[in-house]
Write a structure and sequence with these properties.
The complex is a heterodimer of chains A (287) and B (396). With 287 residues, chain A is an alpha/beta fold. Chain A is 35% helix and 22% strand. The longest helix of chain A has 16 residues. Chain A starts with 12 loop residues before the first strand and ends with a strand. Chain B has 2 domains: 217 residues, Thiolase/Chalcone synthase (Peroxisomal Thiolase, Chain A, domain 1), CATH 3.40.47.10; 156 residues, Peroxisomal Thiolase, Chain A, domain 1 (3-Layer(aba) Sandwich), CATH 3.40.47.10. The chains are: A alpha/beta (287), B alpha/beta (396).
Chain lengths: 287, 396
């Protein structure tokens, strides 16, 4: 009996494509020079619900549609056929700080709007408010599940909760999956929505800054020549500071926006992205 | 924190575990409850359920007060900290704070706090505790851990995925110690949800039984202390040899009709462990007691185990504790290792008349005297999440 794992290792990653949607518009070219100034006092810069065709999307939540829309954007902008990513060779890593908030908030609101009455034993009234379709969408894994269904992704998954530091963790997970040969491509996806829970975020200003900018971003990684270092820097990278200034608070999407900005700069040297959440800063360096 | 990305794909030690379950406040209560065939299901008392079709579940009735801790209002965090106390009593953590990671699986995070925040007269500040990663950060603070703090939200497969992620952190030398596991607390939020889905049984949970009619939910927290092989002297529970996950990509709330994702996860985990079905001594099944899940899972296990499917004992502990969601896979992993340690495999409580379509070598009626060395543990969750762990018990 062998207990030695197969030595399927490849060094490094390559970035095959990045896509960004924010409340400011599509792509990083839509980002203002100064998000705070551009927000003009608005607490939340919202993204509209994407118009996607198909019966399945009629009941899906806005955050699910944003995830699907940004992955579709990546594939179209980089001329990658859907068949290229379909199947078990593509891993999906999904990260969010709070995109599940809207569905969770709605599910609780449907209950608290009608306090339980002792004689309401059948529960029929309440079920009419909270249908069976809504509850599964409260799970963050259903957001990535919808993306997996739409694009036929049946490889390994990672679903991480947290802000920008969690996305750094997710990027690291993707490099691990690629290096171990557990996948040929890794799609790292982040989605953040705030509008539906704006009043709750207003209470957590110590945790999130303003303006809150809704966003969806993804990066497709493959095996390649970029070596990875994953660590815990004390200070934000220049890119982290630049994303905050230009995009505003995009939580888990920020490191992916940073990668897009680095690409815009035609960076050929090392790329360092950092992200902070709840006092922990993580960093990922590709060199 | 020097980083490296090349996995050495080495086994990872599971040094010790801690747990809080409906059976009691520690790991010993969990194990003795399983071995003695206890029933952890009871009427839910902590929040209103009178308007739901089903008001029973695996509720933890009493938690030990946390020594030296300031008052914690979040139930999920309470469970986690209680499990951590149990773990620390068994194995102190020796590592630099920056080299300690916390990786936890959950289906619900602290969502019970959102209910409190939005209740009439509720305090909106509770909403921050409702973030799904709040309990993990609370645990990291409690442990003084300053390495990665990860919350894996892969629904009911989250505990398994968290243990796998923890193993990856160790293999890549990102940290020296990982506290990994899973948790979830019962609350109206989730009870209403599964009640609306008509997934809850009004009878008892009967995994793989011809009379099975649904699941019941439970609450628990389970943690394991993980290190690289040989890093900590002294006894240990066992080793994690392989892990894998796979998406179904077919439905948001039901498993793939052919169980393709679960099969891929199980085969890949065995592959990573360098093992085959011929090496497997025991299977801890997800076994929720729902009509579709159990049939699909049994099909997958027969395919993966091949001709040995009829001779490898299989159990599910969800008849005993309910489906503890994010905690389930972590508890099941610990159960596998304790079965190997003590030479006894707990029975599947509630299973009396195996469904012919779920034919496997189920542990029925009484615990079985067996000392499984290699175990396969399978898990499924909303969103089409599937995960598998391959574990090795140590010689007693």
């Amino acid at each position: 009996m062998s207990v030695v794992a197969p030595a399927k290792t490849r060094a490094g990653v390559a970035v095959e494509g990045i896509a960004v949607l924010t409340g400011w518009g599509q792509g990083i070219q839509a980002l203002p020079a100064d998000a705070a100034r551009a927000a003009a006092g608005r607490a939340v810069i919202s993204l509209p619900r994407p118009e996607l065709e198909g019966e399945r999307f009629r009941r899906a939540t806005r955050e699910c549609l944003l995830g699907v829309a940004v992955v579709d954007t990546l594939l179209r902008e980089h001329h990658i056929a859907r068949d290229t990513v379909r199947g078990s060779a593509t891993a999906l890593i999904y990260v969010t700080g709070g995109a599940y908030g809207a569905s969770n908030h709605a599910w609780v609101a449907a209950d608290t709007a009608r306090p339980a009455e002792p004689d309401d034993r059948s529960g029929e009234r309440r079920r009419s408010v909270s249908g069976t379709l809504h509850f599964p969408y409260t799970a963050p894994s259903v957001m990535s599940g919808e993306v997996a269904i739409e694009f036929g992704l049946t490889g390994p998954y990672g679903i991480l909760i947290g802000g920008a530091a969690a996305t750094i963790d997710g990027l690291w997970q993707a490099t691990v999956l690629l290096a171990a040969g557990r996948c040929e491509r890794a799609l790292v996806l982040a989605v953040e929505t705030f509008e539906d829970c704006a009043e709750l975020y207003a209470r957590g200003r110590w945790l999130v800054k303003r303006p809150l900018v809704e966003a969806a971003a993804c990066v497709l990684l493959t095996a390649g020549g970029l070596r990875t270092r994953y660590d815990a820097p004390q200070a934000p990278s220049a890119l982290e500071a630049r994303v905050r200034a230009r995009a505003g608070e995009t939580l888990a999407c920020a490191p992916l926006i940073a990668l897009a900005l680095a690409r815009e700069d035609s960076a050929t040297g090392p790329i360092g992205v950092t992200g902070e959440w709840r006092g922990r800063r993580a960093g990922l360096y590709w060199h | 924190m020097p980083g490296a990305t090349l996995l050495r794909a080495e086994p990872v030690s599971l040094v010790a575990a801690g747990a809080v379950t409906p059976f009691g406040a520690d790991l010993d209560a969990f194990w003795s409850g399983l071995v003695t065939g206890s029933d952890g299901i009871s009427a839910i008392e902590r929040f209103p359920v009178h308007d739901l079709r089903v008001g029973r579940g695996g509720e933890i009735k009493k938690l030990r007060p946390l020594p030296g801790a300031r008052r914690v209002s979040c139930r999920a965090t309470q469970l986690l900290l209680a499990a951590a106390e149990d773990l620390l009593a068994r194995a102190p953590i020796y590592a630099e704070p920056e080299r300690i990671a916390v990786v936890l699986g959950t289906a619900l995070g602290g969502v019970g706090e959102l209910e409190r925040a939005m209740a009439p007269g509720g305090r909106p500040r509770h909403a921050v505790d409702a973030l799904y990663d709040s309990p993990a950060h609370a645990l990291a603070r409690r442990l003084g851990a300053r390495g990665p703090v990860m919350t894996v939200a892969a629904a009911c497969a989250a505990g398994a995925t968290a243990l796998g992620t923890g193993a990856d952190l160790l293999r890549a030398d990102v940290v020296d110690v990982v506290i990994a596991g899973g948790y979830d607390a019962l609350c109206r939020f989730v009870m209403r949800g599964f009640d609306a889905l008509r997934s809850l049984t009004r009878e008892r949970v009967r995994p793989f039984d011809r009379r099975r009619s649904g699941l019941l939910l439970g609450e628990a927290a389970a943690l394991v202390l993980m290190t690289r092989e040989g890093a900590v002297p002294g006894p240990r529970l066992g080793r994690l040899l392989g892990h894998a996950s796979a998406s179904d990509g077919s439905h948001i709330a039901a498993p793939d009709a052919n169980g393709r994702g679960l099969e891929l996860a199980a085969r890949t985990a065995l592959d990573e462990a360098g093992l085959t079905a011929a090496d497997v001594d025991f299977v801890s099944a997800h076994g929720t007691g729902t009509l579709v899940n159990d049939r699909i899972e049994a099909d997958v296990l027969r395919r993966v185990l091949g001709r040995r499917a009829s001779e490898i004992p299989v159990n599910s502990i969800k008849g005993s504790l309910g489906h503890t969601m994010g905690a389930a896979a972590a508890l099941e992993a610990v159960m596998c290792l304790m079965a190997g340690r003590d030479g006894i495999v707990p029975k599947t409580l509630g299973l009396e008349e195996p469904d012919p379509v779920c034919e496997l070598d189920h542990v029925i009626g009484a615990p079985r005297a067996a000392r499984p060395r290699i175990s396969l543990s399978t898990s499924l969750g909303f969103g089409g999440c599937n995960a598998a762990l391959v574990l090795e018990a140590v010689d007693p």
